[in-house]
Every structure is written in C-alpha cells, then in structure tokens.
Amino acid sequence: MTAHELETAHRLGVNLVAVVFHDNAYGSIKRKQLARFGRTSGVDFGNPDFVKLAEAFGVQGYHTQRASEFLPLLESALEQRETSVIDVPVDYS
Questions:
Q1: The pTM is what?
Q2: Are 6 and 18 in contact (CB under 8 A)?
Q3: What domains, with CATH codes, occur in the chain?
Q4: H or E segment at 89?
Q5: What is the pLDDT of residues 32-90, one digit of tens each?
Q6: Of the listed ranges 14-18, 23-27, 65-69, the one predicted with least confidence
C-alpha cells in the first residue's frame, strides 16, 4: 500500500509489473466495512497520477481507459523486462 517498493525494484533491476486497480478507496476493506457495519470509515481518498508517480521513481508508467486495453498493455509491459506500473481505473457502477 505504498510506492517505495518501486524504488527498490528499480534500483535492484527487478523485472516487475505492478498493476494498480485505482478506485479512490481501499475497495476491499470498504466492502467489508459496509457488510459488517453498514457504513465506512477512513477508506475513501484521492490518488496521485500513477503514471507520473511511476516516472518519479524512474520506472515506466502506463494508464488504461478500457478493459480491452489492459491485456495489450500488460503484454507490452512484460516484454519491456523492467519495473513498470499499469494504472487501471475501476468503476463499480
């Protein structure tokens, strides 16, 4: 739940693709809170631009708008054989 592993992976030359399912919340915790308590606490927040965040750590960042774009982006990121981040926005509606 932090971004510092990106610096470590980049520094060590780890071939890692991190996929961020971007929903402006701790989505799984939120659903559990709603199911158990009928309300949430401390799980909604804003997010940074994950592509720019990746670049700030010296790694490649990708962003997808549609589900159909995800697989080609993932394949491309894996082919690069370097640390990268794919930002996947999630809309539960």
A1: 0.84
A2: yes
A3: 4-89 (3.40.50.970)
A4: strand 84-89
A5: 999 999 999 999 988 899 999 999 999 999 999 999 999 999 999 999 999 999 999 98
A6: 23-27
Residue type, 67: A
Q: Single out the residue of 77, 58, 88, 70 nearest to residue 16, CA to CA.
A: 77
Q: Which helix (H) or strand (E) holds 61?
A: strand 60-63
Q: Residue 17 pairs with which residues in a beta bridge?
A: 84
> Could you report how far apart the first and last alpha carbons of the chain are, in Å?
24
Closest CA to 73 of 87, 83, 92, 59: 87
Q: Which amino acid is at 76?
A: S
Please state, in angstroms and rounded to a whole number, the distance separating the CA atoms of residues 1 and 25: 11
Q: What is the pLDDT of residue 92?
A: 79
Given a cut of 70, whether residue 20 has pLDDT beyond it is yes
